[in-house]
Amino acid sequence: MSQNTVSRAGGKYGLSSKEKRDPMGIAILALNKLGQSPLLDKLKMRKQAEEIIFQSTRGGFKVAAAASRTFSRKGKKGAPGTTVPKAQAKGLFDLTPTEDEQMLVDVVSEFAAEAVRPVAAEANEAAATPQDVLAATLEIGLPILGVSAELGGIAEERSAVAGTLVHEALSKGDMGIAVAALAPGAVATALSLWGTDEQQKTYLPEFTEAANVPAAALALTEPAVLFDVFQPSTTAVRQGDKLVLNGVKSFVPRGAEAELFIIGASLEGKNVLVLVEASTDGIRIEADPAMGLKAASLTKVHLRDVTVDADAILGATDGSTYTEAVRYSRLAWCALALGTGQAVLDYVVPYVKTREAFGEPIAHRQAVAFMVANIAIELQAMRLVTYKAASRIARGVDASREVALARKICADKGMQIGLDGVQLLGGHGFTKEHPVERWYRDLRAIGILEGGVLV
Amino acid sequence: MIYLETPKKHRALVDQVHQVAMNMLRPVSRKYDLAEHEYPKELDMLAAMADGLDQSGASEGAGATGVRRSADDDTSNKNGSNMASALSVLEMCWGDTGLTLAMPRQGLGNSAIASVATDAQLEKFKGTWASMAITEPSFGSDSSAITTTAKKDGDAYVLNGEKIFVTSGERSDSIVVWATLDKSLGKAAIKSFVVTKDMPGVKVERLEHKLGIRASDTAVITFTDVRVPAENLLGNPEINVQEGFAGAMATFDNTRPLVAAMAVGCARASLDLTRDLLAQAGVEIDYDKAATLQHAAAAKFLQLEADWEAAHLLTLQAAWMADNKKPNSLEASMSKAKAGRVGSDVTLSCVELCAGIGYSEAELLEKWARDSKILDIFEGTQQIQQLIVARRVLGLSSSELK
Question: Where do the Acyl-CoA dehydrogenase/oxidase N-terminal domain residues begin and end (chain A) (predicted)?
Fold first, then answer.
């Protein structure tokens, strides 16, 4: 605490606490800071485009949350909400999606190829998903995929499989954009799964009108080494009929524009989800740029004595809703890994067939061909384990084991696919001339990030 | 609708086979591992039971009753004999892989006959115990390099050559032998013949001493001027250069998922016991807690189980595709590649996790770690499966990607 923050090297810039900075090092650091100063921008010493990147990623902006709409209270206080029925199965092993699911996948796949992939590199640089792309995802109905038809959504039954397929299809375009586009849907799905009548009627109508969908985010991750999502340091404390929240949530998609958050917190020793409107006093948003997922405009959400009504708790107070949310969210990340993994495979196949070395395509060598084969094998392996978990969730059967296994294999093999994807392109894979370096960075998120997306 | 559980209609079968594996195979598992080449007489009763099941139709191809593809216009989702075979082989190998391979009348040769024989041949070879003879001393994976010859002589073929690695070669009463009608015509000239042990010129030369699956005998067999009736040739006797090797290799699309199922079964034996032993040692697997926050042994176990789950589902996928008449060469090879390496990783890692108990003959973990190795070799090695997958995914021919 008493250490000078400049001379204390540890804990910053990836240095261990054992490192000591000598005077020359401090001078270099100062130069570096000047190089980052907003002053340069005011002097128009940078190009316009760089300025945007600067402010959204490097500047570490800290702002009050988005000036947002007021969600006027509707519905019956405390009355149970409307839920969709569980999916029913015939009991036959089957890998064919339903017709509805297939139609949805076709639409989203086309959108991912035509509208998402072409802007992915630019969105990565700008650290934001283009507004017209986001608007288009609302037209497709992505946020209301998990919302019951009765509440204006499109779900006839628990839509975990459809959600999984959509996350996969969109992520094939770009994982960062997929996270940006699917984040409001995570909140809407959570509301339709666990919301009371009042919570559903207050918030969900805002999601079901395409022109009016608020940015919203499910915030579960915290910035901690060995972070355990089941031991959040964010707390909710009861004060009369109010709850007071304190803590920091990290990697919150599009937090700067979000109008509604679902915050994971510990309440009386149990984990709960709390609905917090962005206009509430005490919320501060900070840019939280990471290795990848730039297009998701990740943020930290600081909560300081944020006070909400006690009935802002979403779902059960015994920890069960929180646990379910963690599982459904982890599965959504698995689905995202599938899409990005497929993108890698589809990209490296033509590359290794046309890239020549020693007089023939490198694909003619087993060392190269076997890497591609293993990408294909492990990708399908990840897909089947993920689908099985999704199908169990849709049917309302316990899926804790299946989600854990899907998360493990998608984290391990997904990263391997990203790694091999870059390797197969050699030095070219290391440059931004090709998207594989971005996919490499995105795939590292699997198994680490909690919340944000949910099926 | 996506549903990846054991089919409801097959659960009774799975339970039944599991009981057999637990109560009949496990008690003699170590006995025949130690007494290599001794005939496991306990299997006779079991085989009689399996025959009964086959005839009643109740098992839907629980053993080597074949994986025939008949014409059928019905396009509704099916879980049929391929699925049933994979599930039951899996359970049997959970009991003991060597003993499963040694089951009378359930040989790979039986699978081949059941899959490609004409109705007349099916009737003729009913009740036989057929082993499969492909490999020769001069080649392994490259089946097109066959040197065993079959020369047409009147109403018979005369076979000459030497076959190795014939599973149940000594105990079986017939052998499906791969031989070439004319070496100069390449793969298309390779045909398979049902050779019975009573034919003059058939000689079991010796048995191999092996790393694992010791309950199953592996023979070297020589064929010297063996006269085989022409009607014992399986499939089309014509040499169709256009069709090439495809006909003979098609059997693999059906048998590879079965070998994958063996690896999945063997690996599950290791996982089941290791989970239990770890719990006794105070390490419980927590599915919600991140692997990095758990005991290193639990984290390792999660990785193994995740890979196991994947191998299991890839295997069921390949069988499901066969049942639904979808071309499955790619998926069959994927399942074999994944299950083969997962079988080794799981069984070897479980030995490591259980340390002194794992390595000791007091438990069966060390045995499963030896048994599993062959499953990444026979019916196409890991590398052959990768080659097949790579050619398919990359769209390259065997001359482009060697």
Answer: 98-208
Same domain, B16 and B96: yes
Q: How close does chain A come to B296, measured CA to CA in Å?
A: 14
pLDDT given at position B54: 59
Q: Does residue B266 sit within a domain?
A: yes
**Dihedral (C-alpha) B85, B90, B95, B101: value to the nearest 10 degrees?**
60
Residue from B388, B74, B181 nearest A369 by CA: B388
Of B236, B93, B69, B237, the closest CA to residue B152 belongs to: B237
Pairing of strands B130-133, B218-229: unpaired
How many domains would you assign to chain B? 3
Whether residue B222 is found in the same domain as residue B134 = yes
Paired sense of beta strands A260-267 and A216-219, if any: parallel
What residues in A contact B8, CB-CB < 8 Å? 91-92
Domain boundary, last residue among B61, B88, B122:
B122
**Which pLDDT score, from 0 to 100, does residue A324 have?**
98
Contact A377 B309 (CB under 8 A): no
Domains and CATH numbers, chain A: 320-443 (1.20.140.10)
B275 shares a domain with B356? yes
pLDDT of amino acid A9 = 57
Domain region containing B335: 246-394
Q: Give CA angle at A126 (A121, A127), nearest 5°.
A: 95
**Residues A202-206: what's their mean pLDDT?**
93
Q: What is the pLDDT of residue A150?
A: 87
Min Cα–Cα distance to chain A from B307, Å: 7
Average pLDDT, chain A: 89
Q: Which residue has the tokens 């170590």?
A: B30
> Are B15 and B88 in the same domain?
yes
| A49 C-beta neighbours (distance < 10 Å), count | 11
Task: With CA atoms as reference, report the closest residue to B324 among B141, B124, B78.
Answer: B78
Pick from B288, B334, B402: CB nearest A230: B288
Residue B371 lies in a domain: yes
Q: Is residue B402 part of a domain?
A: no
On whether both B118 and B133 belong to a single domain, the answer is no
Same domain, B60 and B39: yes
CATH number at residue B360: 1.20.140.10
Q: Which among A88, A90, A92 is the top mutation candidate for probing chain B, defined by the most B β-carbons within 10 Å of its own β-carbon?
A: A92
Per-residue model confidence as pLDDT tens digits over A386-406:
999 999 999 999 999 999 999
DSSP symbols for A106-126: HHHHHHIIIIIHHHHHHHHHH
Whether residue B385 is found in the same domain as residue B286: yes
B355: left (phi > 0), else alpha (psi -120 to 50), else beta?
Answer: left
- H-helix segments, A127-219: 131-140, 160-173, 175-194, 197-208
Say what the pLDDT of residue B53 is. 60
Checking ipTM against 0.85, whether it exceeds it is: yes
Inspect the interface and report whether the beta carbons of B303 and A93 lie closer than 8 Å: no
What distance in Å separates the CA atoms of residue B21 and residue B70, rounded to the nearest whole number? 31
Q: What CATH number did the domain enclosing B33 receive?
A: 1.10.540
Question: Please, which residues have CB within 8 angstroms of residue B355's CB and are 6 or more apart in sequence?
Answer: none
Number of H helices, E strands in chain A: 13, 11
Q: What pTM did the predictor assign?
A: 0.92
Residue B401 lies in a domain: no
Closest CA to B107 of B174, B162, B179, B58: B174
- The count of C-alpha atoms lying within 13 angstroms of the C-alpha of A129, restricted to the half-sphere facing its C-beta, is 31
Which residue stretches of chain B have pLDDT < 50?
57-65
Nearest CA among A134, A138, A142, A141 for reference residue A115 = A134
Q: Is B238 a catalytic residue?
A: no
Query: Among the three residues B210, B234, B258, which one is the final residue of a domain in this structure?
Result: B234
CATH code of the domain containing B200? 2.40.110.10
Which amino acid does the sequence have at A253? P
